Amino acid sequence: MFDRLEITVLPPGPRFPAQLRFWVNGEDVVEQAVGTGCRGPLAAEALPFGLPSPLRATREPRRLQLGEPECTGGCCGFLSVVVQRIGNVVQWSDWQVPHLEARPLEFDFDASEYDAEVARAEADSWWRFSV
């Protein structure tokens, strides 16, 4: 059975521009692993206009930062994961978490569903024009 990914964009606030959150099987992965007050990656960096998102999975594994605690990642560390396509599966594994936080499980996504969700997030650009 595959895990299910949903990518949401949080609107810009007074202190931070729009940022992403990752819901896997209905749970906010960033908040669960980093805690309340955490931040996800900046939407503009994770969903760059006119370029493919670094969230896209390839056969070459790569580490992506998915979040940081309220005190900043430079203080306590970042939440990051290795993303890799293995046949028809996109795998999130080898998590690194901020100091003393719980490590998320390994996730396996159906590659076509994962690709469709990343493409949907890339196309949904309402936040680029928000004030």
H and E order: EEEHHEHEEEH
Q: How many β-strands, per DSSP? A: 7
Which consecutive residue ranges, at least 5 long each, have pLDDT under 50? Answer: none
Radius of gyration: 14 Å
**Major β-sheet profile:** 4 strands, antiparallel
Work out the helix count. Answer: 4
Strand content: 25-35%
The chain-level mean pLDDT equals: 87
List the helices and strands and how they pair.
Layout (H helix, E strand, L loop, with lengths): L4 E6 L8 E6 L2 E2 H6 L8 H4 L15 E6 L5 H4 L2 E8 L2 E8 L10 E4 H13 L8
Antiparallel strand pairs: 1-2, 2-3, 4-5, 5-6, 6-7
Give your account of this protein's structure.
- This protein is of the alpha+beta class and 131 residues long.
- Helix content is 21%, strand content 31%.
- Strands 4-5-6-7 form a four-stranded antiparallel beta sheet.
- Strand 1 (5-10) and strand 2 form a beta hairpin.
- It is globular and about 40 Å long.
- The N and C termini lie far apart (41 Å).
